[in-house]
Structure to design on (154 residues):
């Protein structure tokens, strides 16, 4: 049976979202969140997020948002790691409060917020991430910002 093993956490500072159109399009309301940077920390992975992260977020009529993100990580020892992920976020009143400028972060257990980051690198020191499956849980923080706890699937 597969197990989840904690690998690292990361915090990403986001720009205010750009709305695509004045209302929902054919698939829902599209919001684009640009990243301003951030940090990540774990026993094997630590460093900073390179500004330029983007999440093409689609808010559906079912009360859930679909994430489609790209993130570049720079490790403390100079390796560049790339991640792309899709995810699902339950849009609760707490989420809407933070997006509206509220100052109370959500908690991981407050809502369903899961992603499946796929990492890649050409740096031999971190080649193990190319053959590892990850899942993550998230929460939203004022700023806006997002925090993730990333787990390796054994």
């Amino acid at each position: 049976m597969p197990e989840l093993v904690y690998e690292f956490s990361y915090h990403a500072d986001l720009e205010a979202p750009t709305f695509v159109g004045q209302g929902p399009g054919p698939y829902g309301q599209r919001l684009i969140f640009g990243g301003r940077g951030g940090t990540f920390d774990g026993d094997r992975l630590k460093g900073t997020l390179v500004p330029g992260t983007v999440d093409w977020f689609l808010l559906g009529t079912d009360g859930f948002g679909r994430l489609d993100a790209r993130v570049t990580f720079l490790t403390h020892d100079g390796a560049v790691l790339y991640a792309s992920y899709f995810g699902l976020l339950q849009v609760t009143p707490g989420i809407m409060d933070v997006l509206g400028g509220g100052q109370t972060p959500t908690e991981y257990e407050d809502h369903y917020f899961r992603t499946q980051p796929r990492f890649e690198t050409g740096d031999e020191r971190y080649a193990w991430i190319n053959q590892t499956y990850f899942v993550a849980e998230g929460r939203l923080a004022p700023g806006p910002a997002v925090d993730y706890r990333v787990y390796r699937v054994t």
Q: What stands out?
A: The longest strand covers residues 28-42. The chain has one domain: 4-153. The chain has a mean pLDDT of 95. DSSP finds one helix and eleven strands in the chain.
